[in-house]
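Exam revision sheet. Question 4 asks you to relate a sequence to its structure. Input first:
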Amino acid sequence: MNKIYLGIMIFAGAVVSAGVFAARLSDVRGTVHNLAHPDNLINYTLASGPFPNRTVVAVSPQPGFCIFCHTAHTNSISTPPLWNKAFPLSAYATYTSSSLDALGDQGITELGQPDDNSKMCLSCHDGTVAIGTVAVLNGLTNQIIDLSGTSFSPVEGAMPASPDNVDIGDTTGYTRRLGVDLRNDHPISVNYTDTLATRDGELRAVDSNQKSVFDNGRTIGPRDDRAQHHLPLFGVVGWAQVQCPTCHDPHIRDDNPAVGNQKFLRLNRFQEAQPTALFSDTNDIICLGCHEKGGSSWAYSAHANSLVGLQTYLAVPGGRREFPANLPVWKASCLNCHDTHTVEGARRLLREGTDSLFSPKAGGNPAIEETCFQCHTTNAASVITYTNPTYSVPDIKSDYDLAIRMPIRSSDQAANPEEVHDIGGNFDDTALPEGGDNCTNLDNTCGADFVERRSKLGLGDLTNRHAECTDCHNPHRVVKFKDFRGNPLGNLVGTPDVSGTHKHVANHTNIASGVLRGMTGVEPVYGGSSFQEMPVDFTVKRGDPAGSLSSAATAIFVTREYQVCLKCHSNFGYADDNIYPVGNRPNLTNTLSGGTPSPTNLITQFTNQAKEFQAPVTHKGEPPTTADGGASAAYTANNHRSWHPVMDNTGRSPAIRGGADPALWFAPWDNAADVGSQTMYCSDCHGSDTGPANGGALDTVVPVGGENGNSWGPHGSSNNFLLKGPWREDIGEGTPDALCFRCHDYNQYANPSPPGGKRKSGFSGLAGAVLPEDRDTNLHVQHAAVMASPPMTCTQCHEAVSHGWKNKALLVNLNDVGPEAGLPVGTAVAAPFGTAIAPQPYYMGAWLSIASTGFAKSGEWKKADCDGCH
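Answer key, structure tokens:
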């Protein structure tokens, strides 16, 4: 019994010793590549394991089984090893991708045609030459051996009945028939060089001392020895060319049926032990032999970690994939999402990555999300079973099926729908307004970091606006920790967080969670503090944090959720002339494409969140005057910019708020020690409606099912603007189910008789005032009592897009309406402004006018401070 010995492998300064595959046999007779008639095998018994179910066999006995591929004599083809097939004459459509660094590395626009090594395989697998056609048989040339079972109907009982088995060999990615369109198959004719490995950032380096990454399967010979039975991977020192034999040896089989179909691979088809930073030829899936995927980053990712990926494949989908029974997700490893011979139309070898309605997919247009939706869907539709509910897989697809959703479907993305998202490539955005990234450098690693050129985000072409799963998540780096850095020790070793990957704890922060680890984002750079000013530049954040403990916003990698969001929701992702109410920003779409219809809340265009969320340090707390906030000179006293603390905290402690009671808020915002120092996520407000969550309570932003329940992310919602609660004037954001009251206690803002009494707020009367109403501890409740019909609404006093604003406490001032409404600075508008004539986007139904004396300090408001409404 022959055994395969793999050569010593040296990379990245580490030496990995050779391993011995006791179950990997060089025994072509015991494989489906043995096409001999059963009579040829009467005296042959497998050394171990069952004989394969061979559906394609010769109709009559022939002399041996090597003849189908080789001939010892009269060979007319010069290429070894004594090939007995005519090479295909057809040209192949070769793999291409913007993230295929080999194109830029080789200075070419497309890969070359398969070489003779690959054509040996393709002479049967491309479907252009009859499998039984041989060059020489019994001394005669150009002969045909009659075969049975050559139709492309169900394979070895692995597939269920129609329509699942329609054209399974031609379009579905099953490897019996690859066809001449190789764009959906692993790239070949790629020069594997150190330069390529450096440019990619996640390929193993080629070491000049190593024999080969994968030995030739017979002997350990020199790298430039191209006369061996199976050609070594490397032709000359320092480079290699990837061809079919790089990964496959058509003669080998495994004697252990429990490991499933090994596809003639030289190394494991599945992960056999928890991956580590170093490659193990004994334990690791073959893909990791070249694609190191960040080493420990991949090893601890949610898709590869043996403590997290415990779910197992169900019988039917597992059978379609030719997986062994009950294969866990972590062992499927790369094959969860990728198939080296996937369906036609899919990009980047994504499994099920098309919009076909068949299952398994029968080709179609690219649809990245369908790859993720295999598992991230309802339990009933998933291909995996949740063997350990502690590590449940969030249902994302159901959110995307809601009326308002991110534009993830191709039909949502453009007038002529196509999948726009396309990472990597050879481009330099650094010269564009507000900057960008340079992906032309030899060490750019843009594909590994999922960098997308700004034009693909919508800059210069708003039809490119889109959302895909990999706009926000890097599936090779996501980890099951609430903090992107890992556990409390700052590393990824140890037990993952069983309560989910989103932090909603007592001291709430905006630190990115594990699902955003290693993604690309941007940090705005500001030239001033005025609300009227745009960011002047953006710093691109990307790369995996590896062992870094830094969570600073200035780190080179993404540390904040908003950095991922602002990649698209700012003037980094689209042009913005900063003209209001209508400029050149993206328009609201319509419900047919999943967007919020125009003019919801009288708004027709997006606003710029990088402009709104800015948190200038000089505006924190309660500064006595801030002349640079964007308000006119007449309203700078006791005024400052305000913002929800997405980018940074507000510094407005209970004392600064005039002794405000922390119980005005719900958890986690009611922690007295942290009020004013907490930060928050965009996804605290944007996401699927929390509705009657957690036993019927409406006072929460936690998804249905709690911390480890439904998805936290802004994927889809039943509410406009992807909000967790309604925010529309015609619904009434003054009602208990409104978005604001997921965090702010409705009873302390809009109930004239709050249970337990009124709690002091920043909007309270001046101590010692003569009039009783001026001494009220909570003037919100006072207003609710006198404005019962029509009921008081938040936007009568507060601006309607509550990200950030030019005045304190997000308060409007109709005596100082300016460029944000398309008017000169300091324009006074008669109150009440009214819903019908409110200029978008900030003054929906605004009534409030501040007196010429200016804003009051928190806790010191009196009637005379308001020039309107009374």
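Marking note for examiners. Residues 1-22, 153-167, 208-238 have pLDDT under 50 and may be disordered.
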